[in-house]
Design brief:
Keywords: ATP-binding, Kinase, Nucleotide-binding, Transferase. Residues 247-320 form the GHMP kinase C-terminal domain. It is a single chain. The chain is of the alpha+beta class. The protein folds into two domains: 2-192, Ribosomal Protein S5, domain 2 (2-Layer Sandwich), CATH 3.30.230.10; 196-326, GHMP kinase, C-terminal domain (Alpha-Beta Plaits, 2-Layer Sandwich), CATH 3.30.70.890. Helix content is 44%, strand content 20%. It has eleven helices and ten strands. A hairpin with a 5-residue loop joins strand 8 and strand 9. Helix 2 crosses helix 3 and helix 8 (229-250) packs antiparallel against helix 9 (256-271). The longest helix has 22 residues, at 229-250.
């Protein structure tokens, strides 16, 4: 019997990137794109490589372009790290795993290197498959932490909990990563928000932009750890955007998200170096009357729009910046 699981792309609605600094965020899962894991019993444990895992290239230029778009590692290190963390969790919790091996393969339609969390989706879908295969239950509130440490502790990837929480919970979720809360219970406060309360949303990603997520947080992290007042204060204001957005959604004031999302991005620009191509994409969307901010760490933006006429303007305008516009499917 084949075990099939999925995990979806995500977009940070408000509060990012404060999630990596004990802040608050609201995120949505974007079911337009996803990663699937297929896992079935086999004599030996085998990870099937995908085209992006290949070490054979047509030329040095093919290698250069492949590394630029897909990074150096592909998905196999993520699969290995996830399997190790799952095994560690079971051993730590005295869960005896049956003597069964498996073959695992992954497929992904999540655009690479544009901040929609394609890497963490692989690990989330993998954990779901392993849980089913071995009949192991991991509490939902604990699962995001295991997924994150698979990347941070095993592979040295800089990552926050936001992506893993929304990919585990799905839908729309408000998250509070208060430091004392996490230290006391091992996870933050996560509250599902009914998707029907959301305003009209669009997502646009740059089809030509390629960057490796995880590298953009290093400078701010060092400044935060040093206790620089500007960084701490600005990240606090970004987190407050999520808190205000959470309150607005619960009270039916969806129109407030327009300004909050713009404010979120403008605050981010005060402490992060944002490329001109990303700034131009955000400004082009705002010129159409929409709000705009990063959906993640760059390359993809998210915002609110008023009506179909404005959405059509976004389709036309952002195409000039090599960006594809979609309406996120949130369930």
């Amino acid at each position: 019997m084949i075990t099939e699981t999925r995990a979806y792309a995500r977009a940070g609605l408000l509060g990012n990137p404060s999630d990596g600094f004990y802040g608050k965020t609201i995120s949505i899962s974007v079911r337009n794109f996803g990663t699937s894991i297929s896992l079935y019993e086999s004599p030996e444990l085998h990870i099937e490589p995908q085209p992006q895992d290949s070490s054979t290239f047509k030329s040095i230029y093919h290698l250069r372009d492949s590394v630029t778009m897909l990074g150096y590692n592909g998905g196999i290190p993520l699969i290995k790290a996830g399997i190790k963390k799952f095994t560690d969790f079971c051993e730590k919790n005295s869960i005896r795993l049956p003597n069964r091996n498996f073959t695992v393969r992954y497929r992904s339609s999540i655009p690479r290197q544009v901040g929609m969390s394609g890497s963490s989706a692989i690990v989330v879908a993998l954990f779901r498959a392993l849980m089913q295969f071995y009949k192991v239950e991991i509490p939902l509130e604990i699962l995001p932490q295991l997924v994150m440490t698979s990347e941070t502790e095993e592979l040295g990837i800089t990552a926050g909990l936001q992506d893993r929480v929304i990919q585990c919970y799905e839908g729309c979720v408000f998250m509070d990563f208060d430091q004392k809360l996490i230290e006391n219970q091992g996870h933050g406060y996560y509250e599902r928000i009914p998707p029907h309360t959301l305003p009209k949303l669009y997502v646009a990603y740059n089809t030509n932009l390629s960057k490796v997520s995880g590298k953009v947080h290093s400078d701010v992290r060092a400044r935060f750890d040093r206790g620089e007042p500007e960084v701490i204060q600005t990240l606090g204001q970004i987190a407050n955007c999520a808190a205000e957005g959470h309150k607005a959604l619960l009270e039916g004031r969806t129109e407030d998200l327009h300004e909050l999302m713009n404010q979120n991005f403008d605050l981010r620009c005060q402490i992060y170096t944002v490329s001109e191509s990303n700034k131009e994409l955000v400004q082009a969307a705002r010129d159409c009357g929409a709000s705009a901010k990063f959906a993640g760490s760059g390359g993809t933006i998210i915002g609110t729009y008023r009506d179909d006429d404005m959405l059509n303007k976004l389709f036309v305008k952002l195409r000039q910046y090599n960006a594809r516009v979609i309406k996120p499917f949130v369930v």
